[in-house]
């Protein structure tokens, strides 16, 4: 584990690589947890976490699947690469956070009351329409369920820069 001050410097200086899980049940509902930590504190968000130094993507996937959902095996569908920019960081100081995220859609049929509470205070199944309309579901989570939404928003930003 990195010393806290070194990790703060890294977060404020470089992008982090993470894995997020778009967790679906057999009724096509989406599992979200209410975050208790920065960034995205107090927002509903998908489970996931950082890839650690010297950890392969495959190792991180297996570790996070176990830590976040208690799973050792599941059906996996890679959804794409996303970027998340936050105006805050885990430390609560003035630094921002930038993630490059590998998103995977997975199936889950477990009991949500047994899920860990280190990152999320509560868990809930959302229908797609409810998720997209809910004001406390984080925009980065919504992007996973809006086809090409992040690409469209980035293109609009580039167009504004050119004009």
UniProtKB/TrEMBL annotation:
The lineage of its organism: Bacteria, Pseudomonadati, Pseudomonadota, Gammaproteobacteria, Alteromonadales. Keywords: Hydrolase, Magnesium, Metal-binding. This is GDP-mannose mannosyl hydrolase. InterPro entries: GDPMH (IPR033715), NUDIX_hydrolase-like_dom_sf (IPR015797), NUDIX_hydrolase_dom (IPR000086). The keyword Hydrolase applies. It comes from the Bacteria. The gene is nudD. GO terms for molecular function: GDP-mannose mannosyl hydrolase activity; metal ion binding. PANTHER family: GDP-MANNOSE MANNOSYL HYDROLASE (PTHR43046:SF12).
């Amino acid at each position: 584990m990195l010393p806290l001050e070194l990790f703060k410097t890294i977060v404020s200086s470089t992008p982090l690589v993470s894995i997020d899980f778009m967790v679906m049940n057999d009724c096509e509902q989406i599992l979200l947890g209410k975050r208790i930590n920065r960034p995205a504190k107090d927002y509903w968000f998908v489970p996931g976490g950082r890839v650690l130094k010297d950890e392969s993507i495959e190792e991180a996937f297996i570790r996070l699947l176990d830590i976040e959902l208690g799973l050792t095996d599941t059906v996996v569908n890679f959804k794409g690469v996303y970027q998340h920019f936050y105006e805050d960081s885990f430390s609560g100081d003035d630094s921002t956070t930038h993630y490059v995220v590998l998103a995977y859609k997975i199936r889950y049929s477990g009991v949500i009351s047994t899920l860990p509470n280190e990152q999320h205070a509560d868990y809930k199944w959302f229908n797609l329409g409810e998720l997209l309309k809910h004001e406390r579901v984080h925009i980065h989570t919504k992007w996973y369920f809006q086809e090409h939404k992040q690409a469209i928003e980035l293109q609009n930003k580039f167009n504004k820069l050119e004009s």
